[in-house]
Write a structure and sequence with these properties.
The complex is a heterodimer. Chain A has one domain. By secondary structure, chain A is mainly α. The radius of gyration of chain A is 19 Å and the shape is globular. Chain A has 6 helices and no strands. Chain A is about 35% helix and about 0% strand. Chain B is mainly α. Chain B has a single domain, classed as Cytochrome c-like domain (Cytochrome Bc1 Complex, Chain D, domain 2), CATH 1.10.760. In chain B, strands 1-2 form a two-stranded antiparallel ribbon. The chains are: A mainly alpha, B mainly alpha. Chains A and B meet through loops of A and helix 5 of B.
Chain lengths: ~160, ~140
């Protein structure tokens, strides 16, 4: 039995649902693979694979002898394992195309998450530039300095 | 059997007291074995003092961004350090981070990598043992 006086309640409920969905927006699946967490998380946070396309991960893992200026040595099996995990969970691994695919053209293979259109849009105007170089932050790769639950894939705290 | 028993007792003690005893270095059989493995290739007995000097030195020969072990590990082994990407590195002193230097594969890997970054060459078994002896005394 539907009464017209229930409409505002329904509307309120829908509104709440909509806002909670848009607030809980920046969530990504946490890394569930021990080896990936360990090997990719020693020098920087292990970034969730959903933040780059497959082709980016492939290129990154294929060039570990010059990993942003560092030499990373992994045995062949570990490398293979990590490469497949990252690609299987990449931004474009689902049929829908993840948030991080937005604005990435087919010919683009970004190697830094911080150079993807989505990342740039989310940080533009929000972060004063001197904050990036403050000693506690030190680099844009230090997500956890501001996003306290970043290692669990939760970036909703801004 | 007897040594196994001892190992278990020590390991249990390490688990029970490892977290609480923040100033007393806890012996660890796995770590001792790692240090011993370097001792067989070293010419002198290990010295914590030489280890300290190595840790604090700016030897040159490596990458300009990483002149010293302290660049990333911080100037005090009792305090956390920070990588170039800003990630926190738990203190190197075994009294602060009880799991330190207990996995040979990990120890080897980081010595290889970090010695190359800082001095442009691998560390000798002598240097490795001195370094571990220093961190174990802290």
């Amino acid at each position: 039995m539907f009464h017209i006086y229930k409409l505002p309640i329904l509307a309120a409920a829908l509104f709440l649902l909509a806002t909670s969905v848009s607030v809980a927006d920046e969530r990504y699946s946490p890394i569930k693979d021990e080896l990936v967490s360990k090997e990719c998380g020693a020098c920087h946070m292990a970034f969730q694979p959903e933040m780059l396309p497959k082709r980016s991960w492939k290129k990154i893992v294929g060039n570990l002898s010059d990993h942003f200026g560092e030499v990373v040595s992994l045995d062949a099996m570990t490398k293979e394992h990590i490469a497949s995990y990252l690609q299987d969970n990449a931004a474009d691994s689902g049929w829908w195309g993840g948030k991080f695919m937005r604005g990435i053209k087919n010919h683009m293979t970004p190697l830094r998450i911080t150079e993807t259109p989505h990342w740039i849009r989310e940080h533009k105007g929000e972060v004063p530039s001197q904050l990036w170089s403050s000693p506690k932050v030190k680099s844009k790769a230090n997500c956890i300095a501001c996003h306290r639950r970043a290692n669990r894939g939760d970036y909703d705290d801004d | 059997m007897k040594t196994l028993h001892r190992t278990i007792v020590i390991a249990t003690a390490a688990i029970l007291f490892g977290g609480a005893s923040s100033s007393i270095a806890v012996a660890n059989p796995a770590r001792d074995d790692i240090i011993k493995s370097f001792a067989t290739q070293a010419e002198m007995p290990f010295s914590a003092e030489r280890g300290k000097a190595l840790f604090e030195a700016k030897p040159g020969g490596g990458k300009p961004e990483t002149p010293s072990c302290t660049t990333c590990h911080g100037t005090s082994p009792l305090k956390a350090g920070q990588t170039r990407a800003g990630k926190l590195i738990e203190p190197m002193a075994v009294s602060k981070t009880s799991g330190r230097f207990t996995e040979l594969k990990k120890v080897r890997k980081w010595f290889r990598r970090n010695c190359k970054s800082v001095m442009g060459r691998e560390c000798t078994p002598q240097e490795k043992g001195d370094f571990l002896t220093y961190m174990s005394s802290k």
